[in-house]
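Sharing a chain and its predicted structure for anyone who wants a worked example. Both blocks are below, sequence first, tokens second.
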Amino acid sequence: MPIFEYKCQDCGTKFEKLLRRSAEADELNCPSCGQKHLTQEFSTFAAHANGAAAQSNDAPVCPSGMCSNPGFCGRN
């Protein structure tokens, strides 16, 4: 059961909702103002790893720290 993020177009409140079926989205109201003018937000997530395994999978970095000509060094 996915968790969706919504934003109320009337009051600006952002909230999350666990939906068991897509039809439930039509029944949603803003928890703050009760209105139905909602937009679904783009959900993102972050992952963090520690230790040697995380370091071995890090993307290579240009020795100068930043490429002035992308693709020139072959690393990007």
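Comments welcome. Helices lie at 52-56.
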